[in-house]
Amino acid sequence: MEYPDESRQFEQLERRAQDLRARVAAAALRGGRAESDVRIMAVTKTISAHLIRDAYALGFRLFGENRVQEAQSKISQVEMPGAVWELIGHLQTNKAARAVQLFSRVQSVDSVHLAETLNRQALAQNRVLPVLLEVNVAREKSKTGFSPADLTGAATEIARFPHLRPEGLMTVAPLVSDPEDVRPIFRELRALLRTLREHVPLASGAEWKELSMGMTDDFEVAIEEGSTLIRVGRGLFGARPPAHASSSAV
Ligand SMILES: *Cc1c(COP(=O)(O)O)cnc(C)c1O
After folding, report:
1. Which residues lie closer than 8 Å to 163 by C-beta, 6 or more apart?
2. What percent of the chain clears pLDDT 90, i.e. is strictly above it?
3. Of 234, 217, 205, 207, nearest to 181 (Cα)?
4. Atom of ligand 1 at shortest distance to CA of 89?
5. Is the backbone of residue 166 left (phi > 0), alpha (psi -120 to 50) or beta?
6. What is the pTM of this model?
7. pLDDT of 208-245, one tens digit each?
8. Residue 70 burial (10 A CB sphere; 0-12, 13-18, 19+)
9. Staple partner for 43: which of 23, 64, 156, 201, CB 3.0–4.6 Å?
10. Band of the pLDDT at 2, cuts 50, 70, 90?
């Protein structure tokens, strides 16, 4: 049975998806890149299973979640063949086993200790886990991620874990009102990837290639600067409901 509200929701999503894809294509063109070189991840935190299935129906296959617990109930609910789920939020080591079970890739590796734990869990589950290293390019106190100065050393250690496959870098740019202000952040992440490519060899078959950068407010600039994967929540699903009454300011 179809309710008028639900079909309206679907139409809104469809319009936003079309608009998003058109903007991605235009930004790729400006950056002198192929549209197919930029993948769109649908970020589903706080989004209902119903709306996630709608995004799947519109052709989205790559999904990102911030929290292990939220992802667990959601992934089992939606059952979408061919969908790929990746973790993009900070991971506590005590949830590493669950994360290795649930996710195709972890984008938010932010310490060597976490990498070591994931490697051990991947070994126990008899798999090789693709990972990205998260970089706190602007060195914001409130954010996790390697500082640029520590990155090469950490990457060298992480590249030795046989059950991890490093594939690239991820960053969350600072919140600004003009996306032009974060262009240098994206440029720096790309330069860091180049440095890793030169100085941190990977096992055969693996390559430093992914640049996961760009969100709803800054994805066009990120694409112009070489992003290979943008992570879009609000730009696709609309405004998120406030996370928690208790976390709002009083
Ligand atoms: C929420 C989130 C996104 C998507 O944010 P929007 O601004 O809604 O596009 C992307 N990356 C991470 C790590 C996030 O937590």
Report:
1. 118, 119, 120, 122, 123, 127, 128, 129
2. 91
3. 217
4. 13
5. beta
6. 0.95
7. 999 999 999 999 999 999 999 999 999 999 998 776 54
8. middle
9. 64
10. low
Rounded to the nearest angstrom, the gap between the alpha carbon of residue 9 and the centroid of all alpha carbons in its chain is 25
Structure tokens at 243: 């996370």
Cβ–ligand 1 distance for 236 under 6 Å, the answer no
The predicted model gives 187-216 an average pLDDT of 97
Q: How confident is the model at residue 94 (pLDDT cuts 50, 70, 90)?
A: very high
- Hey, CA dihedral for 183, 21, 211, 136, is it positive or negative? positive
What stretches of 103-210 show up as alpha helix (H) in DSSP? 112-124, 148-158, 183-199
Residue among 87, 83, 25, 94 nearest 57 (CA) = 83
Pocket perturbation via mutation, ligand 1, pick of 16, 23, 43, 63 by most ligand atoms within 8 A of CB: 43
Q: What percent helix, strand, coil does the chain show, rounded to 5?
A: 45, 15, 35
Ligand 1 atom nearest to CA at 66: 15
Task: Pick from 24, 39, 68, 88 the residue to mutate for probing ligand 1's pocket: most ligand atoms within 8 Å of its CB.
Answer: 88
Name the nearest CA neighbour of 196 among 151, 135, 137, 241: 151
Asked if residues 168 and 209 have their Cβ atoms less than 8 Å apart, the reply is yes
Q: 122 alpha carbon to ligand 1 midpoint, in Å? A: 26
Is the CB–ligand 1 distance for residue 88 below 6 Å? yes
Residue 250 binned pLDDT confidence (cut-offs 50, 70, 90): very low
